[in-house]
Design brief:
- The strands form 2 sheets. Strands 1-2 form a two-stranded antiparallel sheet. A two-stranded antiparallel ribbon has the order 3-4.
- A hairpin with a 5-residue loop joins strand 3 and strand 4.
- The radius of gyration is 24 Å and the shape is globular.
- Helix 5 runs antiparallel to helix 6.
- It has 22 helices and 4 strands.
- The protein is mainly alpha-helical and 532 residues long.
């Protein structure tokens, strides 16, 4: 059973209704354009995250905000560097916690626009900084509030709007744009880092305004989330949006079934008591709340931001003459492989990809840690170039694994987890956990690496191994399901290890293949071999 089952498997078949509805939906320009524009929120996240690593190696930035040490020039203490880096995720933590309420009050579209434009205030504070590092850090805190709110509302908007056949890809585009933002920031840093004045860091900072304006204005030309529109009584708007995004007529069968599913779920909710945010910790939702928190925390605990936040510092220690080049190499691998990750999202199950990615990253960190600790010369790294090359190569291998699995997939899985009435607070809490670990790692990575050096990678290796086990035990397969189908799977307590075999009997009535392996209504008999 599960990973080690030796039973033979019959091929999985779908009911005729499922086949007809899947064939009816189309990949439309409107849906792709919606996903791309909204994903600029991820680009903003990646851009402000990727630029800070290069700033610390710029002469003017060091003169203004660092400390002068004889023999070393302008440097940053571990805690000053950690504070400057960490206040962005600290602000994002605050933003993510209030984002759900803003999204439910203003709507998804307006919440995205307001959050994008709010981040401009922080950019102004940063650019206006002259000699006080605390002012620059506070600017990053304010910017982080807007970025954190976007990290909740953008995936929520994408998951509620996208047709089922495109939802995984479009939500994962958020992660793709994060990687493109990181890469763009690294390229701009490389182009300005040799400038002797404040243009070296103020130009990269000022370009942030462009991304905020593109998102803040562009999102206003897109439709509201159909599920939000339906919940606030705009039924015709919801129907027309679903139809246009799927390339169908408003009265098409697929559209009618989705509207029926949304209506039935809403009626079930209204039949119950009034919704309270703390009910996400109740017996019916606690399991899903914890899954979302652990997955989002796990995305940070894989160790990816160890390279992106401190990349120039890390690779300078290996003896490289220009650590900016190495950062660009890692950023290029990250962006390129995230494009491949969209193929994984579309064609490979969530569970298999997350488990394989976690095991791959475990291997990379084990090699990285032991080579860095026992082979690389800590006094004169240039004397052990082979070890330095191994570190760079396995850093790239790690980025490949992260960018194709845990990078894009976590956003997609978490956006699919929750019932509509709890989606905003539950996603806010899950994303807040991501930012909380981001903050802690940003603040303490320098002091920890100063103390235990490359053995820090063993911490991440252990986390990746634990995450692989967690996904195998608790995360269901949600590929190509509607949000209402996923909700029904959780209500029926479908076994995660056999969730890929779950089949539909009707619009909302489903059966778990683990409990009923033989389906008489046109479906083939199935067993559980190979379900991960």
């Amino acid at each position: 059973m599960g990973l080690f089952s030796k039973k033979s498997a019959a091929p999985k078949t779908q009911t005729q209704d499922e086949v007809d509805l899947a064939a009816e939906q189309q990949v439309t320009f409107r849906a792709v354009f919606l996903g791309v524009v909204a994903s600029v929120g991820g680009f903003m996240f990646g851009y402000v995250s990727g630029q800070i690593s290069g700033f610390f190696d710029m002469d003017d930035f060091g003169r203004r905000f660092g400390n002068y040490h004889d023999g070393n020039g302008w440097v940053f203490s571990a805690y000053r560097q950690g504070a400057i880096v960490a206040l962005l995720p600290a602000g994002a933590l605050l933003g993510s916690l209030v984002a759900g309420r803003i999204a439910d009050s203003l709507g998804r579209r307006i919440a995205i626009s307001v959050s994008a434009l709010f981040s401009c205030i922080g950019t102004i504070i940063e650019i206006a900084s002259t000699t006080h590092w605390a002012q620059f850090a506070v600017g990053r805190l304010v910017t982080g509030v807007g970025i954190g709110a976007l990290s909740v509302v953008v995936p929520m908007y994408q998951s509620e709007s996208a047709p089922a056949i495109l939802r995984g890809i479009l939500v994962s585009c958020y992660q793709l744009f994060i990687t493109l933002g990181i890469w763009t920031a690294e390229m701009i840093n490389y182009g300005t880092h040799d400038l002797s004045n404040s243009s070296s860091w103020r130009i990269p900072n000022g370009i942030s305004f462009l991304w905020a304006l593109v998102l803040g204005a562009g999102i206003l030309f897109l439709p509201e989330s159909p599920r939000y529109a339906y919940r606030v009584g705009r039924v015709d708007e919801a129907r027309n949006t679903i139809a246009r995004l799927a390339g169908l007529e408003p009265n098409a069968r697929s559209v009618n079934m989705q509207i029926d599913e949304i209506r039935e779920k809403l009626e079930e909710e209204k039949a119950g008591a009034d919704t309270k945010w703390y009910e996400i910790f109740g017996p019916n939702l606690l399991r899903r709340t914890l899954i979302g928190i652990i997955l989002q925390s796990g995305q940070q605990l894989t160790g990816a931001n160890f390279f992106f936040y401190y990349g120039t510092t890390i690779f300078k220690a290996t003896g490289l003459s220009d650590s900016y080049i190495t950062q660009i190499i890692l950023g290029s691998v990250n962006a390129g492989c995230t494009v491949a990750g969209l193929w994984v999202v579309k064609n490979v199950g969530r569970r298999k990809a997350l488990i394989a990615g976690a095991l791959w990253m475990t291997m990379c960190f084990l090699i990285y840690s032991f080579v860095g600790r026992f082979v690389l010369d800590p006094v004169n790294p240039a004397s052990t170039p082979e070890a330095g090359n191994v570190l760079i190569v396995f850093s790239c291998f790690f980025i490949v694994a992260f960018a194709t699995t845990w990078g894009p997939l976590v956003w997609a899985v978490v956006a699919e987890l929750y019932p509509a009435r709890y989606r905003a607070p539950a996603m806010a809490l899950a994303t807040a956990s991501n930012w909380a670990w981001n903050f802690l790692m940003s603040l303490f990575t320098r002091p920890i690496t100063d103390s235990i050096s490359y053995f820090y990678g063993l911490v991440f290796a252990g986390c990746c191994l634990a995450l692989a086990a967690f996904v195998w035990l608790f995360v269901i397969e949600s590929k190509d399901r509607t949000l209402e189908e996923i909700e029904t799977m959780y209500e029926q307590k479908v076994s995660p290890r056999h969730s890929s075999r779950w089949q539909a009997e009707g619009p909302l009535g489903h059966r778990d293949a683990e409990e009923k392996p033989e389906v008489q209504s046109g479906s083939a008999t199935t067993s559980h071999h190979g379900d991960v």
